[in-house]
Amino acid sequence: MRQAKTIYDCLFEARRELPSPEAEILTATALGVDKSTFYAFPEQPVSNKAAKRHEDWLARRMNGEPFAYIRGEKEFWGLDLIINPDVLVPRPETETLIECALSLIDKESEVLDLGTGSGAIALALAQETKATITAVDIQPECVDLCTLNADRLGLHVTVSLSDWFTHISSSFDLIVSNPPYIATNDPHLTNDGLAFEPLIALHGGIDGLESIQTIVKESPAYLRSGGHLLIEHGYDQREQVTSLFAAYGFTTIENTPDISGTLRVCSGTKP
């Protein structure tokens, strides 16, 4: 009779293929054990079901699939969000957008999140403020997932289907977006796990600026006087995005770096 695998056996297998910290997280999560058990009782046997799940998860991760999709969850701004392949995996650099937005919001603010995906940005702002938050996405699957995350977290966000501003009729004090901004021929589209993520959330046209230009061009019609637009962009797009903001009449244009020091967020004010 085959001897049952132990926690240590599973961890040893993972460490052969993955960096140690990632191997530990994947193993503990797949086996459903907490850290105290994980480290104190490595010889504890695991069930066949748990061992099979660990084997499957390890194979998927080795194939390049993001761990967030494998696990079905991703932490962002302290929120545990349900994630699936219909939406982009939230990234730490997007928290820069949250920080910028929070500096502009008060309890009377009305905020629009364009291309909400999992709802990461909208829900982070809803957690931190009493502002009125509206989130839209072109994909019904994203609308459903954002709604699910909002309900699960007990946060109030109005979520609806819209291709950018197509079904928007209100005006706002702040518009935020992390739109698709990767260019057609950018090799990153097939590297770093991006091949598993939805192309519609990544591909920004030939130069990566198609969606950004649409948002910057159309936003003034939906912003109140003195309202602000915040957009996350690519690591090498600061000059082009800043020029777009200026071309469409925004003032007080600023660029803010992300946690790595890369200029990542462009902001502007409607006169």
Structure summarized in a few sentences:
The protein is of the alpha/beta class and 271 residues long. The protein has helices at 7-17, 20-31, 35-40, 48-62, 67-71, 95-102, 120-128, 140-153, 210-218, 238-247, and strands spanning 73-76, 79-82, 110-114, 132-137, 158-161, 172-177, 223-232, 251-257, 263-269.
Report on this structure:
This protein is of the alpha/beta class. It has two domains: 7-63; 84-269, Vaccinia Virus protein VP39 (Rossmann fold, 3-Layer(aba) Sandwich), CATH 3.40.50. The protein has helices at 7-17, 20-31, 35-40, 48-62, 67-71, 95-102, 120-128, 140-153, 210-218, 238-247, and strands spanning 73-76, 79-82, 110-114, 132-137, 158-161, 172-177, 223-232, 251-257, 263-269. The protein has a seven-stranded mixed beta sheet with strand order 5-4-3-6-7-9-8, sandwiched between helices. Helix 8 links the parallel strand 4 and strand 5 (158-161). Helix 1 runs antiparallel to helix 2 (20-31) and helix 6 (95-102) runs parallel beside helix 7 (120-128). It starts with 6 loop residues before the first helix and ends with a strand.
